[in-house]
Design a protein that fits this description.
Helix content: over 70%
Structural class: mainly alpha
Number of domains: 1
Distance between the termini: 52 Å
Strand content: under 5%
Radius of gyration: 18 Å
Shape: globular
Order of helices and strands: HHHHHHHHHH
Amino acid sequence: MQLLERLIVLFAESGYVAVFAALLLCGAGIPLPEDITLVAGGVIAGLGYANVHAMAAVALVGVLAGDAAMFLLGHRYGARIMRWPPVAWLLTPARYAKVQEKFARYGNRLLFLARFLPGMRTAVYLSAGATHRVSFLRFLLLDGLAALISVPVWVYLGYAGANNREWLAMWIGRGQHGAWILAGLLALALLMLWWRRRRRLR
């Protein structure tokens, strides 16, 4: 919760601009948890430093802008981007190969699921751009649909718990575990749909 408190102080001083900039950094793979950043944005709205609906909108745009930047970098430079020092640290050859394997298995569905998988998003979005298997508009649609679920949940959670940090900490923990459970259930559902479709084609 120390990180959350620091972000609350920073965001209270700088408002929407700081939240937007922080979310761009999250999209770039900086080790700053996106969910905590979104919650902090909600908290300052709950404390009266911002409008919660405007904060949710700014957060959504910041998240999508960060994700889109990673996709477009991958699309522009392809596999060469893996030689860039920051990217090479984030997206090792082994990790890149693993993401490619998941793309071959799940296809574009992986782009939707990635939003609910902390630590995987940037690698998935860079890889999606580098493979040229999906158009930018399709990427934006899939990522946008997922963000419309995750972003408001975290922002409004922070807003609701702005004056009750113990309650907020409890629900952040539940939400983080719930995100993994939801991702697992979505993956299972998509796998079943793919299996049924494959059986029909046979």
